[in-house]
Amino acid sequence: MIWTLFWLTGRLAGSVGASVLQKRLLGAGVGIGHLWMVTYGVIAIPAAGLLLAIPMPADPAFWHHALTAAALDVAGNLAMAVSLRQSDLSVHGPLNAFRPAIAGLIGWLFLGEVPSATGLGGMAILTLGALLLLDPGAAAGRHELHKSLAGGAWRLGGITLSILGASSLKRALECGSAAWTLGIWVLAGSAALAIVRLLQRRATRGPWSPGPAGSGPQVAVHAGVFLVMQWCTLEIFQRTLLAYSFAWFQLGMVAQVMLGHWLFHEPQIRRRLAACAILSAGALLILISG
Q1: Which of 257, 253, 272, 19 lies closest to 134 in space, CA to CA?
Q2: In angstroms, rounded to a whole number, what is the distance separating the alpha carbons of residues 102 and 119?
Q3: Is 225 exposed, middle or buried (0-12, 13-18, 19+ CB in 10 A)?
Q4: Rounded to whole angstroms, how far apart are CA atoms 237 and 42?
Q5: DSSP-assigned letter for residue 206
Q6: Which of 43, 19, 39 lies closest to 182, judged by CA?
Q7: Of 6-15, 160-169, 198-207, where does mean pLDDT reach its minimum?
């Protein structure tokens, strides 16, 4: 239990820290593609070292699960970065509460798992909390409303890809070590981003803009924080159920609302904290429903 709390603390700190750094870098003009290409490129070095130091998994199924997780997480990270650029940090973070609902929906569609009345009630409460969270306020215009909804849609898409990737990561952990799972996840993700960059090699702006001079060290710090977060995530996946992991990860939502207000002067802190409480209640109901 003590080690689970240790890894959970590291994961929450890494998640909040990575989101703050992403918000700052994207706001400064660093392109989404450039941010993640450099991030994966930096952490590919220690990832390769892990593969050289640990024996290779013998189960062939490991490669399928690890490579699938890498592809899904790259797409999910890009979608979440788009969401973070278009929405406030204090909106981006709390939408994590939708993870149990999306996991339940995926189970219903692909595994035939029918949600209970309690689970459906939790999903309804989540929807209410999301409406409160995404509403830009009466004083905002139609443009702000569309921007908020677009940011929420990208976030939910990223969360869905993340859940699918997490499922593959957990299966990979069952077939191999955490070190090899992390190493293949990083190197395969790096290769996927390199291919995308090669296909768009003429693009120098937009997603591939390096941003202002001096942003390189901050991107490197983001890479280090992201690597620690992912390692902690794998350790937690090994110690508890996937659904429980997602429930614990939501503890960082209040921190993201507070940091969004303090660091980026984001408005409506009281309403967004109230939305956090509603989202937490909905997620708890889904968790109780099993």
Answers
A1: 272
A2: 11
A3: buried
A4: 24
A5: G
A6: 43
A7: 198-207
Distance CA 19, CA 85 (A): 11
Reported as half-sphere exposure (CB side, CA atoms, 13 A), residue 263 has a value of: 18
Among residues of the chain, what percentage have pLDDT more than 90? 21
Per the CB < 8 A criterion, the answer to whether 286 and 100 are in contact is: yes
- Of residues 284 and 235, more confidently modeled: 235
Q: How far apart are CA 290 and CA 286, in angstroms?
A: 7
CB atoms within 10 A of CB 270: 10
Q: Which helix (H) or strand (E) holds 266?
A: none
- pLDDT given for residue 143 in this prediction: 56
Place of tokens 């390199």: 194
In the block, residue with structure tokens 């490991």: 62
Helices marked H in the chain: 2-27, 32-53, 61-86, 89-92, 99-111, 117-134, 142-175, 178-199, 216-239, 242-249, 253-264, 269-288
Q: What is the dihedral of CA 281, 21, 74, 135, to 10 degrees?
A: 40
Contact 118, 289 (CB under 8 A): yes
CA angle 73, 31, 221 (to 5 degrees): 70
Read off the amino acid at residue 226.
Answer: F
Q: Tell me: the pLDDT tens digits for 20-46?
A: 999 899 888 898 888 999 999 999 999
Which of helix, strand or coil describes residue 241?
coil
- Looking up tokens 């409406």 gives 131
